[in-house]
Amino acid sequence: MSVALRPGLIHYPGFLDGEARSRLAGEVADILAEAPPFTPRMPRTGKPFSVRMGNAGPLGWVSDERGYRYQPHHPETGQPWPPLPATALAVWEAIAAYPAPPEACLVNLYGPGTRMGLHQDRDEDEFDAPVLSLSLGAPALFRYGGLARSDPTRSVRLMPGDALVIGGPSRLVFHGIDRIYAEPDLLAEDLLPGLLPPGGRINLTLRRVSRPQGV
Ligand code: MD3
Ligand code: FE
């Protein structure tokens, strides 16, 4: 079942069943054991984000005083990022409708009370590819608008196991996370002990960064 929230922004509620969510949570635990979560900082000011992040795949998204960018190495350990999580890759193949694999899997870690302000994702060179989002853990209030920051916005609750494909005319819409709903009882199946505090949320985004040859 899928719902077009607007053209190109397709919501698949409960795309991952409990078994797939547990498997994905295990893959995330492996990624973060190899590439420890880091706290991104705002370009210029260096103000820390409240969301912590990890990455998998040939490229990872990082942010610090020097700016936003994709790079092949962890900003603190200098190691290459771990491989893309197989469960997320299978979802890309099922619903992204894009003829090349993703190059980056950004892992966002939200504690209770964490927010992500309204922004566009435009650090990629390839905007013809969609972004695929997968949610685990606590429900979140996702807000999306249009191509201008001042456009009206709507909100939808993202639940654990939900997938979102953001592409076509929605690829550059403004969006953010306004709140995390801490409902710890709901979460045990998704979150391996120690991955996040109770009431935490994980979002994975699969991204194509470079334009593939011959596509
Ligand atoms: C709309 N993440 O990592 S996922 C991000 O829940 C990000 O962690 C949020 O925004 C999160 O950049 C929202 C849904 C999403 C992801 C990417 C998008 C919506 C998007 C890219 C373009 C437009
Ligand atoms: Fe985003």
Descriptive report:
This protein has helices at 18-34, 86-95, and strands at 3-6, 9-12, 52-56, 60-64, 67-71, 104-110, 116-119, 131-137, 140-144, 154-158, 163-166, 175-180, 201-207. It contains two helices and 13 strands. 13% of the residues lie in helices and 32% in strands. By secondary structure, the chain is mostly beta strands. The radius of gyration is 16 Å and the shape is globular. The strands form three sheets. A seven-stranded antiparallel β-sheet has the order 1-2-11-8-13-6-3, covered by helices on one side. A four-stranded antiparallel β-sheet has the order 7-12-9-10, with no helix packed on it. The two termini are 29 Å apart. The protein has a single domain (3-207), classed as Sandwich (Jelly Rolls). Bound molecules: N-(carboxycarbonyl)-S-(naphthalen-2-ylmethyl)-L-cysteine (MD3) and fe (iii) ion.
Tags for this entry?
215 residues; mainly beta; Jelly Rolls; 7-stranded antiparallel β-sheet; 4-stranded antiparallel β-sheet; 13 strands; 32% strand; binds N-(carboxycarbonyl)-S-(naphthalen-2-ylmethyl)-L-cysteine; binds fe (iii) ion
Ligand list? N-(carboxycarbonyl)-S-(naphthalen-2-ylmethyl)-L-cysteine, fe (iii) ion
Q: Which value, in Å, is the CA radius of gyration?
A: 16 Å
Instruction: Bin the helical content.
Output: 10-25%
* Order of strands across the main sheet: 1-2-11-8-13-6-3
Name the poorly predicted regions.
none
Number of domains: 1
Strand content: 25-35%
CATH hierarchy, class? Mainly Beta
Mean pLDDT equals: 95
Overall number of strands: 13
Structural classification: mainly beta
> So how many helices?
2
Shape: globular
